[in-house]
């Protein structure tokens, strides 16, 4: 049953139930015992679910259900007739007033969303321009020196190349966030993905005197995953945990099977996040780092949710933070499910891009804690 049909069913059932209770009560007790006020419930539902058209149709339906009470023993005097008429008038007025108020709130919400979207575009543009500004200045400066014949040409060319590559990384990050994500699912042991992600961060960890500790299952945990995208997401989370950790700290990465899910925990021993940082951690372009464009965490969550998983962050100031990843675990592999229908390769699944908000996050579990 569609959502629209479900709402219609609720409104019709509620109206008929109220009419039955009304009828039954008046028969058993007294004509003065009425349940008129309950008719406002289906009217309110009609307004909220279907707007002005729903308000009119629901009012007509409720009025039709109420018409039998104008006749017979229920209405024997002129005041009783007036009472019934006023009830119909007041329910109609209520329906239109409720529609007016609901429409006003809807327009306010729509305007707020539009302002939020425009603010998000403005902040995104500011972050991107800021990130591109420094390498662009380097390129222009060293290009001018080459043109003027000053300095070491090979060194200048190397700096220009590095700056251009930095700009390319920034542009690629923005494109990765904005474009739909296509998963190339293959059967893979998730322990291998975690190990590769941690190894790619080990050089940085060693440079910061941070230890990486892995606690993985002793047996293979093979399921359908996009190893490239998931490895990148895990690398972002581990890298950010390293950034948040003081010298001599330990970043612990664990994985375990819990019922029909794979749970991965990344714990650091940083200073923890405040409530504001924790609330905005998944917002695009939100970061307290001096470097980075604030897209690491949104992209990581996008990848994990594309796998029908979840990414949550727990943090306590003075203790540290924990990234909790849960992915569905299917023992039946992609090959078994699809080999009879396709041999062209691994299935691809699309995942729409995330909406742009006013602020965003590119930091990991405790990334903000390394900055004042």
Explain the overall architecture.
The strands form three sheets. A five-stranded mixed beta sheet has the order 3-5-6-8-7. Helix content is 56%, strand content 14%. A hairpin with a 2-residue loop joins strand 5 (250-258) and strand 6 (261-267). It has helices spanning 3-28, 40-66, 78-148, 153-178, 190-207, 227-244, 275-279, 296-306, 334-338; strands spanning 181-184, 186-189, 211-215, 222-225, 250-258, 261-267, 310-316, 320-328, 348-351. Helix 1 packs across helix 2, helix 5 (190-207) packs parallel to helix 6 and helix 6 runs antiparallel to helix 8 (296-306). It is built from nine helices and nine strands. By secondary structure, the chain is α+β, with helices and mostly antiparallel strands.
CATH class label of the largest domain: Alpha Beta
Q: What is the strand arrangement across the widest sheet?
A: 3-5-6-8-7
User: Strand-residue fraction?
Assistant: 5-15%
Distance between the termini: 53 Å
- Taken together, the total number of domains comes to 3
Mean pLDDT: 79
Q: Mind telling me the CATH superfamily name of the largest domain? A: Histidine kinase-like ATPase, C-terminal domain
CATH architecture of the largest domain: 2-Layer Sandwich
By DSSP, the count of extended strands is 9
Supply the number of helical segments.
9
Oligomer: single chain
- CATH topology name of the largest domain, in short, is Heat Shock Protein 90
Q: What is the makeup of the main sheet?
A: 5 strands, mixed
Indicate the low-confidence ranges by residue numbers.
336-372
User: Using only CA atoms, what is the Rg?
Assistant: 31 Å
